[in-house]
């Protein structure tokens, strides 16, 4: 029976913990035959560096073949429906990795195909990023117990998945965003139901980062939001910029996290992201290992 990965909540707590064990093993022994004789299509509507590289490299490590399709040059751009696209793709390949503007497109791809569909980013969630983020936290701290992740900035797809992932694992999570840019209400409610008071939202970033062991941010203008750039930057800067002053209110030695790409001087000060407590490139590397663990789980069961 095929299994999709559209949301971080498509994995249980036990499955997440198992995935992190597999990730650790794959960092030591990266090659295998999990995808031998299998082809996976990478259908991307949005630009990408880390997501494309990590998936293409990871599929190759497992002796599979990735096919990259820019959606803007596919028949989707000429009016072919998502269901028709899904039905055609399943005749040629054994999986779809999609990076899309609207989460509903992922749902349609999954509903109309019999092969695994993986969310490589949508407007609602970025679960593959969260797999890497949470593994990085585990790698640096040695345990999830006693950790607190504070997210500062736009309550976007990255924030949504990270919040939900923390709720599943029982990790304390605080988000600080402007009221207008709060995390998705449904995901926030689901996270609160799972973890109660361990999940909090503030408008004040200094309250959110108090006693945090990890402080996380993302760009203030995501892909697709360019028309709102002036308004967004005026709203977020400087209040939600992660500065050395803000980091000083977190736990001593707190690590700084960012999914990249970063805009120094906007969501984060250069001295923070380029400082000794920044772990952003460890996060980026772990995209490869965590996604390979995901592929192994999806294709060996």
Notable traits:
301 residues, alpha/beta, Rossmann fold, 2 domains, five-stranded parallel β-sheet, four-stranded parallel β-sheet, 12 helices, 9 strands
Taking all Cα atoms into account, the compactness measure Rg is 19 Å
What is the tally of beta strands?
Answer: 9
Distance between the termini: 8 Å
Assign an overall shape.
globular
The structural domain count equals 2
Strand share of the residues? 5-15%
Average pLDDT score: 97
Largest sheet: 5 strands, parallel
Q: What fold name goes in the CATH topology slot of the largest domain?
A: Rossmann fold
Range of helix content = 40-55%
Structural class of the helices, strands and pairings?
Answer: alpha/beta
CATH class label of the largest domain: Alpha Beta
CATH superfamily of the largest domain: Aspartate/ornithine carbamoyltransferase
**Helix and strand pattern:** HEHEHEHEHEHEHEHEHHEHH
Count of DSSP-assigned helices: 12
CATH architecture of the largest domain: 3-Layer(aba) Sandwich
Low-confidence stretches: none
* Major sheet strand order: 7-6-5-8-9
């Amino acid at each position: 029976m095929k299994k999709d990965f559209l949301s971080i909540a498509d994995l249980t707590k036990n499955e997440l913990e198992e995935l992190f064990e597999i990730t650790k093993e794959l960092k030591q022994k990266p090659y295998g035959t999990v995808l031998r004789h299998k082809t996976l299509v990478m259908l991307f509507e949005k630009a990408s560096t880390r997501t494309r590289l990590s998936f293409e490299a990871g599929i190759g490590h497992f002796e599979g073949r990735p096919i990259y399709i820019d959606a803007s040059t596919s028949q989707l751009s000429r009016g072919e429906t998502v269901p028709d696209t899904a039905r055609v793709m399943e005749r040629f390949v054994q999986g779809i990795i999609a990076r899309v503007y609207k989460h509903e497109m992922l749902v349609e791809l999954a509903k109309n195909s019999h092969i695994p569909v993986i969310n490589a980013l949508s407007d609602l969630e970025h679960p593959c990023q969260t797999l890497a983020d949470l593994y990085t936290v585990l790698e640096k701290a040695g345990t999830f117990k006693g950790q607190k992740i504070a997210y500062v900035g736009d309550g976007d797809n990255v924030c949504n998945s990270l919040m939900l992932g923390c709720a599943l694992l029982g990790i304390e999570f605080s988000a600080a965003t402007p009221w207008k840019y709060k995390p998705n209400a449904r995901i926030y409610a689901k996270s609160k139901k799972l973890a109660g008071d361990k999940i909090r939202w503030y408008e004040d970033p200094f309250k959110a980062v108090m006693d945090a062991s990890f402080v996380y941010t993302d760009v203030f203008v995501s892909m697709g939001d360019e028309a709102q750039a002036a308004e967004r930057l005026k709203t977020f800067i400087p209040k939600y910029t992660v500065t050395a002053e803000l980091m000083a209110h977190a736990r001593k030695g707190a690590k700084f996290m960012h999914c990249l790409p970063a805009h120094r001087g906007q969501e984060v000060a250069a001295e923070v992201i380029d400082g000794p407590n920044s772990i952003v490139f460890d996060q980026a590397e772990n995209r490869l290992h965590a996604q390979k663990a995901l592929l192994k789980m999806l294709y060996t069961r």
